[in-house]
Specification:
Layout lengths: L5 H24 L10 H25 L7 H31 L7 H30 L27
Length: 166
């Protein structure tokens, strides 16, 4: 599994922000006002980030040799969870960022300021979740084999087709 690139997450966040902003503009033209982002969203984002970080810390300790009883399947699942945390954080940052952009022109209205503040804090929570996912992915990387270690991988190549046979 390849590590997630920050640039990829940035592109995902920008594309979701653009799509979300278009959706919110279309809804606003029809007089529909989206609901305010609940503050519980931020708490859930932070709790998820904390769980991913705790699981990643266990894997890091396992790879350092401090926790030899960790199941390798759990380590692999933690790596997958970290990757999903990265992408979920990017998507949520884009979605809530679009909500902030949708109300930027109306910040003089108290309800719109509250909506922008709640969505802005949710963006920060989503970015924390994505950052924790990136860190835990780094925790889960397997170090390369040492020079003296025997290579047990099968690196044989399939025979190349005979150009004379045809």
């Amino acid at each position: 599994m390849h590590r997630t690139r920050v640039q990829t997450l940035g592109i995902v966040a920008v594309l979701v922000t653009l799509a979300g902003w278009l959706v919110f503009r279309a809804l606003a033209s029809r007089g529909v006002v989206p609901a305010t982002v609940p503050w519980l969203v931020v708490a859930v984002e932070v709790v998820i980030a904390a769980i991913v970080l705790a699981m990643g810390w266990s894997v890091r300790q396992y790879l350092k040799g401090n926790k030899p009883d960790l199941d390798p399947i759990r380590a692999a699942r933690t790596a997958v969870l970290a990757k999903s945390s990265c992408y979920t954080g990017a998507v949520l940052a884009g979605w809530y960022g679009a909500q902030v952009l949708a109300v930027l022109g109306d910040l003089d209205v108290a309800s719109q300021r509250a909506r922008a503040a709640a969505a802005g804090v949710a963006v920060v929570g989503a970015l924390v979740m994505a950052a924790v996912g990136l860190v835990v992915e780094w925790f889960c990387r397997i170090p390369p084999p040492e020079d003296g270690a025997a290579d047990t991988g099968n690196h044989s190549r399939a025979p190349s087709p005979d150009p004379a046979a045809g």
